[in-house]
Amino acid sequence: QVRLVESGGGLVQAGDSLRLSCAASGRTASAVNYSMGWFRQAPGKEREFVAAISWTGGTIYNVDSVKGRFTISRDSAKNTVHLQMNGLKPEDTAVYYCAAERSVVPTTDQYEYDFWGQGTQVTVSS
How far apart are CA 49 and CA 52, in angstroms? Predict the structure, then answer.
């Protein structure tokens, strides 16, 4: 079992930045086989893929939503994943979830992810 805990959410104004973190614990001895992702869910909407990263640092993004504004990174030694969010917009308001999947190559499909955090709220005011 892998436990994921997100932090770093909050209330900001449009144009501000936030850095989300996700700390993994538990069966991370084989973390080399885990890819990590960030998803978000706005009120009344379906959960949406944001970004993901492999153990070796390969990344994929939801280009339409976060292109050029969000950056995912990973500190494998600390079992931590970050999501740097710049130029935040009101439409970025959502609960952001960290997830882990047993795959060397990250995917965008939420149903491929095996473990989830409890989420952290990000609210961007206009």
Answer: 8
From CA 24, how far away is CA 79, in angstroms rounded?
5
48 contact partners, CB below 8 Å, separation of at least 6: 39, 40, 41, 42, 62, 65, 94
Tell me the C-alpha distance between 51 and 44, whole Å.
Answer: 21
For residue 87, is it left (φ>0), alpha (ψ between -120 and 50) or beta? left
Q: What are phi and psi of 19, to 5 degrees?
A: -125, 115
Strand bridging mode 2-7 / 18-26: antiparallel
Per-residue confidence at 19, pLDDT binned at 50, 70, 90? very high
pLDDT (tens digit, 9 = 90+) per residue, 37-90?
A: 999 999 999 999 999 999 888 999 988 889 899 999 998 888 899 999 999 999
Cα–Cα distance for residue pair 117/66, rounded to 1 Å: 21
The H helix count followed by the E strand count for the chain is: 1, 11
